Amino acid sequence: MSVIVVLLIASISVAALFLAAFLWSVKSGQYNDEASPPIRILFNDATITETNKSDETNTNNDQKTDIIP
After folding, report:
1. Separation in Å, CA 20 to CA 2, 10, 12, 14
2. 9 in a structural domain
3. End-to-end distance of the chain based on CA atoms, in angstroms?
């Protein structure tokens, strides 16, 4: 029975540690980036389009690379 109490205290301590780390990251502004996700998807599309154009102009099939989205 005493092992259960020790494990319960240890698990609550670890959970409190993770909660404190999460609250600290929120307070320090870790999740405040609201501008880059909409912009990032635009850059990804442009990069894939440029890569596709360079693959179309390439006449040697051995030098083509796979594009992983």
Report:
1. 27, 15, 12, 10
2. yes
3. 52
Residue 31's CB is within 10 A of a number of other CB atoms, namely 9
Task: Please tell me the total count of domains within the chain.
Answer: 1
List b or e across 42-55, with b for residues whose CB sees 16 or more CB atoms inside 10 angstroms.
Answer: eeeeeeeeeeeeee
| CB within 8 Å of 35: residues ≥ 6 apart | none
Any domain includes 61: no
Residue 37 lies in a domain: yes
Tell me the per-residue pLDDT of 5-27, one tens digit each, with 9 for 90 and over.
999 999 999 999 999 999 999 99
The pTM is what?
A: 0.48
